[in-house]
Amino acid sequence: DVQLQASGGGVVQVGGSLRLSCATSGFTFGDYAIGWFRRAPGKEREAVSFIGSESRTYYTNSVKGRFSISSDNAKNTVYLQMNNLKPEDTAVYYCKFSARGIDYWGQGTQVTVSS
Fold first, then answer.
1. In tens digits, what is the pLDDT along the chain, a chain of 115 residues?
2. How far apart are CA 3 and CA 23, in angstroms?
3. Residue 96 in contact with residue 3, Cβ under 8 Å?
């Protein structure tokens, strides 16, 4: 079975850092782009960052220069390093990949940035 396990969320003060992890299993890691999404209270879900083949990356504008996505093929895990966190980064963060028209989501991890 395909599984994505997100972890690493928590409560941090403005300007702090967190590293999210998305541990995966059940598919050939590296064959698919894996992304991080977030949903803030009262807002729609948005794409935050992706990492694809050949380690190509994407970041939404609001996190550029602060977040960094990476992957460890040996551990089948994708990381999202989040620095200089802001209150507007508060959200539930999910990892996801898509294959053959099916979306696979992790369970979400809460990030709360307190001012």
1. 999 999 999 999 999 999 999 999 988 888 889 999 999 999 999 999 999 978 899 999 999 999 999 999 999 999 999 999 999 999 999 999 888 889 999 999 999 999 8
2. 8
3. no
Which residues partner with 38 through β-bridges?
46, 93
Tokens of 35: 């992304």
Residue 30's alpha-carbon distances to 8, 16, 23, 92, in angstroms, are: 22, 30, 13, 25
CA–CA separation, 28 vs 59, rounded Å?
23
Beta bridge partners of 3: 25
| Angle, CA 99 vertex, CA 94 and CA 100 arms, to 5° | 140
Q: Which residue has 């940035």 as its token pair?
A: 113
Determine the Cα–Cα distance for residues 35 and 50; give it in Å rounded to an integer. 4
